[in-house]
Amino acid sequence: MAAAPSSLGTQIREELSCSICLELFTRPKVMPCQHTFCQDCLQDHAERRGTFQCPICRRQVRLPPLGVAGLPDNLMAASMCERFQVIVQSLPSAPITAAPAAKGTRQHHGNQRQVVQSLSSASIPAAPVARGTGHHHGNQRQEEHQPQKVTFGGEGLGAGQFNGPWGVTVSDEGEIFVVGWENQRIQVFTLQGKVVREFPTVVSGEEDMGPHDAALDREGNLWVVGGTDSADFAVHYNKHGRVLRKFDLQRTGRARGVAVDTRRNHIFITQTTGDWPNLHGEVLVFRPDGTLERTVGQQQGMKHPWYLTVDREGNILVSDEVNQYVYVYNEDGLFLFQFGGEGSGEGQLKYPLGLCTDRAGNIIVAVGGNSRVEMFDKTGKFLKHITADLKWPQAVAMTTQGQLVVTDRVEHKVSIFQNFWI
């Protein structure tokens, strides 16, 4: 007699389980290869070494300055584990992990359906699903026009290569500055993708930090936020990597974004504190000397704001990858509106990350969980999908010539899109 097929509930549980301890994820951390494990399991596995192999794919992983705790949280996995446990506890009959007895088949499948429907809004793959795998994007409107693009990079430590490019910004002269968190450096490219130079993200002396994001000021110098083993910093470099100044930030162990209001010469830095699920997010506004001017966004309940930008009118736009909204404030920090929300439909944002604005004030958002780059008008109304050909779009920036630069965290590449507004 053939063995009964595994229950669907068991398969879902396996997707939400750590491959080391085989239990539901606890404080899940995602590695550069996109595999997820419990924080404590990784700490035991790494045994305080600077580098170790991923238990699944065997890729060599170099830990950030904060160690395992400094790896990005897999917030979706944490959320879905909690939701899974709540759903299972509420089911009226057989445990979801048990194979159904014939007598209770109807009730059991009803329970499975309940779990699947409750979890259908978010899946937990080892890595983001590539576009074009069957029905994944089947109900989405496909754009007839595909913008021209130039792509460069690839995974590695060499010149012109990346290990998860986290941030990008473009100078008025057309130089592209790409933030390499794992490589602890900034690489500079032409608009054709040719390497111009690179420099390490030095804090002081020989101490380097893992950079999270970067933004250019009105003099063409670079503000970079990131962290070392002991602290978080905002460091001001000239375009060749010489440290001009720096100031300390609260050590949080979580990713930050940075933007510059070139009119007021204010530096905006995102900050997330607390432990999951009780996260608290805000935007800190600094003067260049490190004086805290004010705080923005405390009243909207942001959970994990990462990227942000300032438009031509001085409005502040912030993406929150946990709440899955973009929040918009005026130049004085007054809340104006928000848009997005979790989902894969037009105008919805599943893991919104980098964002920027074009000359007309349209808002462009990299949506990692949907593998898309989206365009909205200045009121937050959805306009179009710019591209759905990237695996995990992470950061975006506009050139003065109107080209769009996008980093792909999974493919470890940078793409420059032409004529994307058509």
TrEMBL record:
<dbReference type="GO" id="GO:0008270">
    <property type="term" value="F:zinc ion binding"/>
</dbReference>
<dbReference type="GO" id="GO:0000209">
    <property type="term" value="P:protein polyubiquitination"/>
</dbReference>
<feature type="domain" description="RING-type">
    <location>
        <begin position="18"/>
        <end position="58"/>
    </location>
</feature>
<feature type="compositionally biased region" description="Polar residues">
    <location>
        <begin position="112"/>
        <end position="123"/>
    </location>
</feature>
<dbReference type="GO" id="GO:0043161">
    <property type="term" value="P:proteasome-mediated ubiquitin-dependent protein catabolic process"/>
</dbReference>
<feature type="repeat" description="NHL">
    <location>
        <begin position="152"/>
        <end position="192"/>
    </location>
</feature>
<dbReference type="InterPro" id="IPR001258">
    <property type="entry name" value="NHL_repeat"/>
</dbReference>
<feature type="repeat" description="NHL">
    <location>
        <begin position="336"/>
        <end position="379"/>
    </location>
</feature>
<dbReference type="Pfam" id="PF17170">
    <property type="entry name" value="DUF5128"/>
</dbReference>
<dbReference type="Pfam" id="PF01436">
    <property type="entry name" value="NHL"/>
</dbReference>
<feature type="repeat" description="NHL">
    <location>
        <begin position="380"/>
        <end position="420"/>
    </location>
</feature>
<dbReference type="InterPro" id="IPR050952">
    <property type="entry name" value="TRIM-NHL_E3_ligases"/>
</dbReference>
<dbReference type="InterPro" id="IPR027370">
    <property type="entry name" value="Znf-RING_euk"/>
</dbReference>
<keyword id="KW-0479">Metal-binding</keyword>
<keyword id="KW-0862">Zinc</keyword>
<keyword id="KW-0863">Zinc-finger</keyword>
<dbReference type="GO" id="GO:0061630">
    <property type="term" value="F:ubiquitin protein ligase activity"/>
</dbReference>
<protein>
    <recommendedName>
        <fullName>RING-type E3 ubiquitin transferase</fullName>
        <ecNumber>2.3.2.27</ecNumber>
    </recommendedName>
</protein>
<dbReference type="InterPro" id="IPR001841">
    <property type="entry name" value="Znf_RING"/>
</dbReference>
<dbReference type="Pfam" id="PF13445">
    <property type="entry name" value="zf-RING_UBOX"/>
</dbReference>
<dbReference type="InterPro" id="IPR013083">
    <property type="entry name" value="Znf_RING/FYVE/PHD"/>
</dbReference>
<keyword id="KW-0677">Repeat</keyword>
<dbReference type="InterPro" id="IPR017907">
    <property type="entry name" value="Znf_RING_CS"/>
</dbReference>
<feature type="region of interest" description="Disordered">
    <location>
        <begin position="99"/>
        <end position="156"/>
    </location>
</feature>
<dbReference type="InterPro" id="IPR011042">
    <property type="entry name" value="6-blade_b-propeller_TolB-like"/>
</dbReference>
